[in-house]
Design goal:
Blueprint: E1 3-4, H1 18-27, E2 32-35, H2 44-54, E3 57-68, E4 71-78, H3 85-111, H4 117-125, H5 132-141, H6 148-156, H7 171-180, E5 184-187, H8 197-209, E6 214-219, H9 227-236, E7 240-244, H10 274-280
Parallel strand pairs: 1-2, 2-3, 5-6, 6-7
Antiparallel strand pairs: 3-4, 4-5
The structure holds adenosine monophosphate and manganese (II) ion (MN) (3 copies).
One manganese (II) ion (MN) binds at residues 8, 13, 38, 133, 248.
């Protein structure tokens, strides 16, 4: 079985419609696939219907933003009940902040003479949730840089003109929402947060203490050389290991579908979790 438990559609900052994403996953010989859009479940029903048609095991998911010690972390929820009230209320709050943050980013860029970016970003977002990826595309489009990583670095990160610090939910709240919705919680790409070893251990401890289930040992958006360290951390804190492409766009070569390495031997794969198997049947 090939598992990919982290991917984005046009419901957030991916470029494939949720149903097309499912077809692409099927074509890439993926057996079990999760849709995990940023702070939204808007693509789930469309994905679920297509998964049934093409006979792919589908995992309803989400990637929720968290503010932890002033940093933004991402927590993936898998097998969530998208009708759950607590989760839905949580999502509403996240989206309200996203909306305000997007407008504020537009205002701050405009103050620096970088105007008309907000409207272009909205165009890129279409009916999906507005993210920094859409601002990055707008900036490239208007000639402020020639690649997404470059415009992120110069405009959309800490101390740069378009950066607005996160005011997302707390780690405890997000884990409570996922838990209420019957889901499993996964700390996404832990190697991407620029945490010291001490901070990373503290995060593992808090995450485990608050009921977290797994960490992404393998992620298409995290450097491969971190895999042994993350596998050791998962073992130390008795957490399951997850894996996902973090797929956004067929044009990004670093997050192709169907090309993940295997989890190290010492890992307990999240699909061996009792609730994963239960939901799977
Ligand atoms: P947001 O949740 O709106 O702050 O947007 C975060 C998203 O921006 C991430 O999920 C990535 O898809 C994208 N992103 C963040 N940093 C970079 C980067 N350096 N280069 C390209 N994309 C990035
Ligand atoms: Mn993204
Ligand atoms: Mn992420
Ligand atoms: Mn992601």
């Amino acid at each position: 079985m090939f598992y990919d438990l982290h991917a984005h559609s046009t419901a957030s900052d991916g470029t494939l419609l949720a149903s097309d994403l499912i077809k692409a996953a099927k074509n890439a010989d993926i057996d079990v696939f999760a849709l995990t859009d940023h702070d939204t479940v808007a693509g789930i029903e469309l994905a679920q219907a297509m998964a049934k048609t093409v006979q792919l095991y589908f995992v309803p998911g989400i990637e929720l933003s968290v503010t932890w010690k002033g940093k933004t972390l991402h927590i993936v929820g898998l097998y969530i009940d998208i009708q759950d009230q607590l989760l839905r209320q949580g999502i509403e709050k996240q989206l309200a902040f996203r909306q305000w943050r997007g407008e504020e980013m537009g205002r701050r860029l405009a103050k620096k003479g970088i105007s008309d970016i907000y409207d272009k970003a909205l165009e890129y977002a279409g009916t999906g949730v507005l993210t920094r990826t859409h601002f990055a595309k707008a900036l490239v489009d208007k000639g402020y840089g020639n690649s997404l990583p470059k415009v992120f670095k110069h405009f959309l990160t800490l101390n740069k003109p378009g950066y607005v610090s996160g005011q997302w939910a707390s780690l405890q709240d997000v884990l409570a929402w996922i838990n209420a919705a019957g889901g499993l919680s996964v700390l996404a790409h832990p190697a991407r947060y620029h945490l010291s070893k001490t901070q990373l251990r503290q995060l593992m401890k808090e995450f485990k203490g608050a009921g977290g289930d797994a960490i992404e040992v393998i992620s298409g958006s995290q450097i491969r050389k971190e895999v042994p360290t993350l596998a050791a951390l998962a073992k130390k804190y008795d957490l399951y290991a997850s894996q996902g492409s973090d797929f956004h766009d067929p044009q990004y070569p670093w997050t192709r579908l169907g090309y993940l390495p295997t989890l190290p031997e010492q890992c307990k794969p999240i699909w061996q979790h009792e609730r994963f198997i239960h939901c799977f049947q």
